[in-house]
Amino acid sequence: MTKRIAFLASEAPVAQTARAALIGRYGDVAPQEAEFVVALGGDGFMLRTLHSTQHLNTPVYGMNRGTIGFLMNEYGESDLLERLAEAEEEIINPLSMRAMDQFGSTHEALAINEVSLLRAGPQAARLKITIDGRVRLAELVCDGALVATPAGSTAYNYSAHGPILPIGADVLALTAIAAFRPRRWRGALLPKTAMVRFDVQDPEKRPVMADADSISITDIDWVEIRSDPSVSHRILFDPGHGLEERLISEQFT
């Protein structure tokens, strides 16, 4: 049994060493020629790999050679072909972010985990939140806010006390970061089809930046976020260790 595999690795020495060992055992092809892409690193490198290969529609199988591995499988060299053949596939649609800065420039990016808005100065941000054209919160005074996918709900969203979402749920999490007013507002669950818009109030006095999976835009005036069903990321997991199981397990640790 042979497979055309593209091995990609982060710059960490342990990941590069693993890549060399796997190439020596299984060979290597370019990503555009591969049946499978194997990503070696942590979750951050996995996200970069998914972004860089999204135009290929090739499934990505991650093996943990980093510090965090929620999206990764355990590392192993000897049985990779069998693991790829038995792997379970999860399909994830990213978030599409469209933002305008204070200088009138428009920026676009995709985010698999979340799009977050963060204060960029000493004072709290003031945000107006509109859902599908209807103002739902005229003023949120906070350190920031984020919109997370189910796949990203255990990342920054969870640290900000947002809910963990089942991977098959057709919802997004809207979560406040250190909300000051309304003080007890923790966020909302929204339909996956919702269009979320943040308008920054007093942007010169209270500057805000937007971040989409580490793609950062400064001096934001407004941001629009929605799920993008036209893009599908195919992620492979060992049987019994898929995202759904990990999302459930995370809530009992």
TrEMBL record:
Main localization, broad class: cytoplasm
One of the record's GO molecular function terms: NAD+ kinase activity
Active site: D43 (proton acceptor)
Localization per Swiss-Prot or TrEMBL: Cytoplasm
Enzyme Commission no: 2.7.1.23
Enzyme class, UniProt record, top EC level: transferase
Cofactor: a divalent metal cation
Gene3D superfamilies from the UniProt entry: Probable inorganic polyphosphate/atp-NAD kinase, domain 1 (3.40.50.10330), Probable inorganic polyphosphate/atp-NAD kinase, domain 2 (2.60.200.30)
Keywords for the protein's UniProt record, in alphabetical order: ATP-binding, Cytoplasm, Kinase, NAD, NADP, Nucleotide-binding, Transferase
Residues that hold NAD(+) according to the record: D43, G44, R48, N113, E114, D143, A151, T154, A155, Y156, N157, Y158, S159, A178
Domain of life per record: Bacteria
Catalytic activity annotation: NAD(+) + ATP = ADP + NADP(+) + H(+)
InterPro entries, sorted: ATP-NAD_kinase_N, ATP-NAD_kinase_PpnK-typ_C, NAD/diacylglycerol_kinase_sf, NADK
Family (UniProt): Belongs to the NAD kinase family.
Function (record text): Involved in the regulation of the intracellular balance of NAD and NADP, and is a key enzyme in the biosynthesis of NADP. Catalyzes specifically the phosphorylation on 2'-hydroxyl of the adenosine moiety of NAD to yield NADP.
Name of the featured protein: NAD kinase
Encoding gene (name): nadK
